[in-house]
Design goal:
Blueprint lengths: L1 H6 L4 E7 L27 H8 L9 E5 L3 H10 L6 E5 L5 H15 L4 E6 L7 H15 L4 E6 L10 E7 L7 E7 L4 H9 L3 E11 H11 L1 H12 L2 E3 L2 E3 L2 H5 L6 H6 L5 E6 L9 H7 L8 E3 L2 E4 L5 E4 L4 E4 L4 E6 L2 E6 L6 H10 L10 E4 L2 E9 L2 E8 L7 E3 L3 E9 L2 E5 L2 E5 L4 E4 L5 E4 L6 E9 L8 E4 L6
Parallel strand pairs: 1-2, 1-4, 2-3, 3-10, 5-11, 12-14, 13-15, 14-16
Antiparallel strand pairs: 4-8, 5-8, 6-7, 6-8, 7-11, 9-10, 16-17, 18-19, 19-20, 20-27, 21-28, 22-25, 22-27, 23-24, 23-26
Length: 480
Amino acid sequence: MADETVTRNETIVPVILSGGTGTRLWPVSRKAYPKQFWPLVSAQTMLQETAGRASGTGFAPPVVVANEEHRFIVAEQLRESGIAGARILLEPMGRNSAPAIAAAALMIAEADPDQLLWIMAADAAITDADALHAALATAASAAREGFIVTFGMHPTGPETGYGYIEQGDPLPGQHGAFRIARFVEKPDAATATTLIGDGRHFWNSGMFVASARTLLAEMERHAPDVARAVRIAFDARRPDLDFIRLDAEGFAAAPDISIDYAIAEKTDRAVVVPAALGWSDVGSWAAIWDVAAKDKGGNATLGDAVVEQSTNCYVRSEGAITAVLGLQDVIVITTPDAVLVTHRSQTQNVKRVVDRLKRDKRPEAEAHNRVYRPWGFYESLIQGDRFQVKRIVVLPGAKLSLQKHFHRAEHWVVVAGSALVTRDAETHLIRENESLYLPLGCIHRMENPGKIPLTLIEVQSGAYLGEDDIVRYEDTYGRN
């Protein structure tokens, strides 16, 4: 027994689930650039905050499970925050948390099936780091005995946006850990008030600690369809640059199911550690108002925002100055292409607006005007009949694909930095205040050979200006 204590791996592998879309935080959070990639409660993005609190002594480099469309955003944000050695596992499509966790457990089990995983969403806030690490130590102790441990957050009010966990009997030999009596679905206000009054119900944080061996065994026992499909997808995985791609056909066969429904509510090995961590899932604008710094009137602002003679408001601007006068309990969010105004009590229903925009086939439902690419980003400035003007920013050392268009010509004007441009058989170095014309059908590529970001203005002209009018011949980022 002593030898086992000496040799077992005491580190914990953080598993960060970054596949959500954060619909209730529209118009900032959208499918193409969801809330985990935004700084919502501090100067860091939610992903960076999550990775940061799970790094250092006692932690292995994280495993991040992400949508393949976001792979370069994830990699760049981890790099910016100094997180080294992360493994990024790519989902070909969203299948909820159970398949994502199963894939991470399979990868970690290859090296050590008894390795502990700390599973968490990429987009939650925690303010009490000391309490977090104390709770994590309790959870790890129980997890090493073969239990699947979740964290129950002490409720601060009758929240209807969270599920609840009822605490059962104490777990013998594990101080601070309890059997789970039951899980409770998101309740109505009256039921939530009753639940928080008995002292035995806690918010379900969605965080879990368990060994890879235990997770996979319980997945085989309670969700064999998930286990089978994910194993097929994992066995057929392939490397792609610094990423690991799960097989699309295999993963598509996995049921769309959460870890709660697949395992946690069925297993006899479920345990809860109650804790007060200053936790929030930051799942709505009202939740962000809750954790934001406020003035004497209870107002929180971010960006170019002005609040006068108003109370308990949250006003955020990502663009134009936004002023609120004589209002109470409102949320006002301004982005370059959309504005949301709602009462704080209605923020759980923002998804209805997004659903309406989707039905109307509005691009604002899923994408921002600024579109991020592995080489940088572009944004549309003006669009009219048969023409469009864009701003394009290319990171130092990055390059676009070698490509051509069937329906548009382009004119590039460099306004900062320098561009090395391939146009058919020619190569041109275009400096600040210089330009180059790219006729329809020419094969072209642009790269930034310098040490500062390249900024240029692109003027497109033609009968069709959609982003799908592109034929790639060669691409550094595997998008051929």
